[in-house]
């Protein structure tokens, strides 16, 4: 039986060992490029999420530019869950939540955009660490894309490579002329716990169709500095 002092002692949360850092994003970037990223970005993308855990980021959409064709594209994609912002919103609250999927093979990303009226727009996507580039992102109705992970101007960048549709037992690769163009998402540190998110779609013939910029701050305590974690 425990004595009174032991019963009164507060429970301590278990300490996560260094080997539990998530190195899956880091493994997709050359070591020299990864070293050029700010510590806050490296820390955010090596944070291990356990079952039932989420990383939450809150902030605001700074601006959203949609050309007429970009707006039509966003409306058409409502058929597969509206994976793009559907309105030219600016200076509205936004929240991003990242959750480890149950199978452990990737992450579920959920973005919420406030609207002037009605419920916020919710955008869901799933990142999977597989495929020819090492990373794929899927939205609704089996639509997805393979992503290249790059470092540009000290920002972590995700850039679409090929679009596809997953059908039962078969993957249909879309020809480039049937796609909206190159999608680029960049993640740039603006402080130790804040970052800038930029989403852009640029078509080879039609130019930029969409650009959205948002700013977020970590809403949970990040894990310790990881600059000394060995490369995978």
From TrEMBL:
InterPro entries from the UniProt entry: DUF4166 (IPR025311)
Domain DUF4166 intervals: 37-216
Protein name in UniProt: DUF4166 domain-containing protein
